[in-house]
Amino acid sequence: MRCSFCTCEMEPGTGTLYILRGGKTLPFCSKKCRLNSLKLKRKQRKVTWIRKDNKDEEKKMREDKKKAKELKKEEPKKVKEEVKPKVEKKEVKEVKEERKVEEKKEPVKEENQEKEVKEESKVEEKKEPVKEEKK
């Protein structure tokens, strides 16, 4: 997180967090930054002590960017790909035939179950309620 006034890097859990009415948050690293910004209404570019800190940080940022570019420029190592053996067409055909056989078997079982359920419901309909005889 960076201070909203002097833009110095802050460690988590340090500094103060000022929340405006609109919901915007302004993190400050110190009381000095908070008062200069909110109470004294000073501009960052006009305060001299900020310029020195910013120049040091800019140098660090430039160095970090250069290092990142150097790392990107390095060529990645080529990895040898393993040669996969070709699958014979006979094996593929056999697998397809097995799948077709399995697909044909499963629906037949479901149809038989549906027929059994229909027959049971017909049997229940045919049964008439038993009438009690009067003595």
Question: Describe it for me?
Answer:
A hairpin with a 5-residue loop joins strand 1 (16-19) and strand 2 (25-28). With 135 residues, this protein is mainly α. It has 2 domains: 1-64, Ribosomal Protein L24e, Chain: T (Roll); 90-124. The chain is built from 3 helices and 2 strands, in the order E-E-H-H-H.
Jot down its keywords.
Ribosomal Protein L24e, Chain: T; 3 helices; 2 domains; 135 residues; two-stranded antiparallel ribbon; 2 strands; mainly alpha
Give a short overview:
With about 140 residues, this protein is mainly alpha-helical.
In CATH, what is the class of the largest domain? Mainly Beta
User: How many helices in DSSP terms?
Assistant: 3
Q: Low-confidence stretches at least 5 residues in length (pLDDT < 50)?
A: none
Largest sheet report: 2 strands, antiparallel
Task: List SSEs in N-to-C order.
Answer: EEHHH
The CATH homologous superfamily of the largest domain is named: Ribosomal protein L24
Write down the overall geometry.
elongated
Query: What is the SS-derived class?
Result: mainly alpha
Compute the separation of the termini in Å: 97 Å
Strand content: 5-15%
Strand order of the largest sheet: 1-2
Q: Determine the CATH topology of the largest domain.
A: Ribosomal Protein L24e, Chain: T
**What proportion of the residues is helical, as a percent range?**
40-55%
* CATH architecture assignment name of the largest domain: Roll
Number of strands: 2
Mean of all residue-level pLDDT scores: 76
Structural domains: how many: 2
Q: What is the CA-based Rg, rounded?
A: 40 Å
